[in-house]
Write a structure and sequence with these properties.
Blueprint (H helix, E strand, L loop, with lengths): L12 E11 L7 H9 L6 E12 L7 E10 L1 H8 L7 E2 L21 E3 L3 H12 L5 E4 L4 H12 L33 H11 L19 H14 L3 E4 L3 E7 L2 E7 L4 E3 L3 E3 L6 H9 L4 E3 L2 E10 H9 L16 E2 L6 E7 L3 E4 L9 E4 L8 E10 L11 H16 L6 E5 H6 L16 E3 L8 H17 L9 E6 L6 E3 L14 E3 L10 H16 L3
Parallel strand pairs: 5-6, 5-11, 6-7, 11-23, 19-20
Antiparallel strand pairs: 1-3, 1-4, 2-3, 8-9, 9-10, 12-22, 13-18, 13-21, 14-15, 15-18, 16-17, 19-21
Amino acid sequence: MLENQNRRNTTTVTVLLRNLKLPLDHDDGDLAPAAAAVLGVDTAGLAVHAIVKKSLDARRRREPQFLYTLALDLDPATEAALLNRKPVAVESYVPPLRAEVRGLRSGGRGRPPLVVGCGPAGLFAAWRLVEAGLAPIVIERGPDVTERTRRWNRFLRGDAFDPESNLLFGEGGAGAYSDGKLYTRIRDPRVGEVLEVLAASGAPRSILYDAKPHIGSNLLPSVVRRMRRRMAEGGAEFRFSTRMTSLVVEVGRVCGVELASGGVLDADAVFLGLGHSARETIRRLHRDGVAMERKPFQLGARIEHPQRVINQMQYGPYSEHPRLPAADYRLVAKIPGGDLFSFCMCPGGEILPATERPGFICVNGASPLGRRGRFANSGFVITLDPNRFPGAGELAGIDLQEEIEARAAALADHPFGAPALRLIDFLAGRLTNGALPESSYPMTLTVAPFEEFLPEPILDPLRAGLSELCRRLPILRHPEAVIVGPESRSSCPVRIVRDQLTLQSPSSAGLYPMGEGAGHAGGIVSAAIDGLRCAEAYLATR
């Protein structure tokens, strides 16, 4: 029965209708009539309160269709009609647990909290602190996102590479120029809050209900900029081109950080959101005794197809329908030596060099909001267990990453080029003869054997897993498919240890390791949530 607690006022009740199916060529005006038809009531008796979820059902051998979950406002007569029906086709609507995006306030006493890193974890930690009335200082080794974009575009046009301003360092972190994927498996009410904050900062409102929400590499920088400006209005201070080198610790408690410029910043607490590529800082923290441990991480390569090939694979005869988005996929091959799985699939996107210094190469994927590019790419990675790392010590995984990236860079014909093969040649264990197919990669791709940079425990399952996927989906063996490597920074091989309750480092009180670089998150939303949680843990001590 529909419960009175769902009443928004004295004349309507809000209910939930799941799995409403609509054809590809529908528009938003069709939602209410379609819902009324399913429920067997008059359209005048209901209104769409909100789209709760929207997804695409593109399973093979059927025409693709959109599936909606709708919150509907019903008038009393329509509610009564539904109550008399058996079974009732709707259920009680419980509004999502989303924290209100409150007005930001300034204030605070004593030494301010310090946030290191301006990626998702750092931004959302600062957001929560400002909400609580504090005035955190946020430092970021790279420039603000506007300047960062300028420098990156100049690099692509031939200017010198900037080790402090690239796809890894700068406002927004490593995710600022990615696809901007926001779907996560985390079951946490803060997911809704993160999406609300991003939408209030200029992201499309559709991220609040899309089954696979994303913002896009072209829009994310402006969203990050708006978030920063709102926090600055609330009292936060942002200092760019400011790199932390080490912690200042007194009697077992962090009280500030040393800067590369030679100065010191005092702080009541330090929120450490370095990102997984601040390797020199992680090494310094390790030398200074900050507790760390090995953790599993992923290694592999990135594969690119023409987008039309992936559309054909997923949509079949409907692949050219104008209402269908650029198709994506999520693939897994279970093989000896570890499962191979696709990671960070970028429809309509491009492959980019994701490195912070010359002489090392790693590739990553990105795609704009519209995903209208000619190519689709995805990482394909194997999870490497810590017990299988070569070498000793907590930082052995970073050592392995650097060895792979240096070997790959040495094979390339351009300082930021990457080794590549036709996929069919990689599977056959041979080099590609002649020119490689056209690719989205902005630098030079060089034909090179992957045996020269990928270790056997990664190379063998990568080849076996891709062979299995191509057996199941022969279209993947398309002659224009290219494999580019390495994909080595999909996750961090180190975890900076923290107490499960206080979220502080056991070796340095007042230090809150957070986000991907500390090994406590993977992806934009999970890192943002981790930043919120760390700020909340700190606020609970005040």
